[in-house]
Backbone:
């Protein structure tokens, strides 16, 4: 990594962003479906935007530098990135997953994935011994989300790498909650890293996008072929928006984390909050492990209220915070995972994980922390 991460958020690692036409500081939006050929058998490097586009190419270079990857591929949503990942596997393959995953991941695995003949086993990936005991002869990969969404379980990525190497498995990490600013799983031994760039990378709740970053040339070539074939590419305009968001990634995440720490301290002492899950709190079960593999804690907080009535009233009474899905943007959002993000997760699984009618998830934004606390105070009253 030739530059520090805050510099890489603003400039391509190879300084190619200095070559914009007319000296433009910001990459132009190449809103073009197709590009002319200089001659027969010749190309400018861009032929058709489904395969490649200059605006998207710069975004991918920036992300490649942030991830320290061989290749980073910008998709039109986080789910599109997961769809691309699934194409690596075939009928009869097995993938072991963290049992507490984003509900959309569970939905695509249990439908599209299983229709392809792939089987999925969900285990508590914070227990490395359990993960290893779950490996079968047809297991091909570990799919890990840490911290998990929404119960904030922390998985030891160093141990996952040891297990993956021992059994010749791909190690796939969903790093949406931390972004490459706080954690770079490829540097810890992961083979593939996924992001919903809609979240912290974009940071403004204004566009959908996803990334898949890899460190292997062969995997990159296979994914690039599927990418252009299925048309999973991010548009030029959305690429521009994600690029713009990444430029402020560092300052946003530092401020959001500071806000989250203050709010977590408030919530853990609130009489109507029976449990709080924030990895920045020293008493969090995975706090020490997290410190070994990440440089920050992020701004996602989950908490359990004393009863269902408190949770529902809080969602109805919040004023500054919005009751909305998604996360990672400048605006603070509160979600009811039971009926929103994890509505497609089987009830018995949800209940076992503790995602019940008292469980709330808070994405802390950039508002003044004291104002957010006042809003929570009145909503929980």
Residues:
């Amino acid at each position: 990594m030739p530059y520090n991460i805050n510099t890489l958020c603003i400039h391509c690692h190879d300084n190619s962003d200095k070559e914009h036409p007319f000296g433009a500081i910001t990459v132009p939006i190449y809103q073009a479906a197709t590009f002319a050929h200089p001659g027969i058998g010749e190309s400018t490097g861009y032929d058709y935007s489904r395969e490649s586009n200059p605006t998207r190419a710069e975004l991918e270079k920036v992300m490649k530098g942030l991830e320290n990857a061989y290749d980073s591929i910008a998709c039109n949503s986080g789910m599109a990135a997961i769809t691309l990942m699934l194409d690596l596997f075939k009928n009869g393959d097995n993938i072991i997953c963290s049992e507490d995953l984003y509900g959309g991941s569970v939905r695509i695995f249990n439908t599209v994935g299983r229709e392809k003949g792939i089987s999925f086993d969900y285990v508590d990936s914070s227990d490395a011994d359990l993960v290893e005991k779950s490996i079968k002869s047809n297991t091909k990969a570990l799919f890990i989300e840490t911290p998990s969404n929404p119960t904030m379980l922390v998985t030891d990525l160093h141990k996952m790498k040891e297990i993956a190497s021992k059994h010749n498995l791909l190690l796939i990490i969903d790093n949406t909650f931390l972004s490459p600013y706080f954690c770079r799983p490829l540097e810890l031994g992961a083979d593939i890293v996924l992001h919903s760039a809609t979240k912290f990378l974009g940071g403004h709740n204004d566009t959908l996008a996803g990334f898949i970053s890899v460190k292997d040339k062969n995997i990159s070539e296979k994914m690039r072929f599927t990418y252009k074939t299925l048309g999973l590419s991010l548009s030029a305009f959305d690429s521009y928006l994600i690029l713009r968001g990444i430029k402020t990634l560092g300052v946003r995440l530092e401020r959001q984390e500071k806000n989250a720490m203050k709010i977590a301290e408030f919530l853990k002492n609130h009489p109507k909050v029976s449990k709080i899950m924030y990895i920045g709190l020293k008493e969090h079960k995975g706090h020490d492990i997290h410190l070994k593999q990440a440089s920050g804690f992020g701004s996602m907080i989950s908490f359990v209220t004393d009863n269902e009535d408190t949770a529902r009233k809080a969602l109805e009474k919040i004023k500054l915070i919005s009751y909305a899905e998604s996360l990672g943007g400048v605006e603070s959002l509160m979600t009811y995972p039971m009926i929103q993000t994890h509505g497609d997760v089987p009830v018995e699984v949800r209940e076992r994980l503790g995602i019940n009618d008292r469980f709330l998830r808070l994405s802390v934004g950039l508002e003044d922390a004291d104002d957010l606390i006042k809003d929570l105070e009145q909503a929980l009253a």
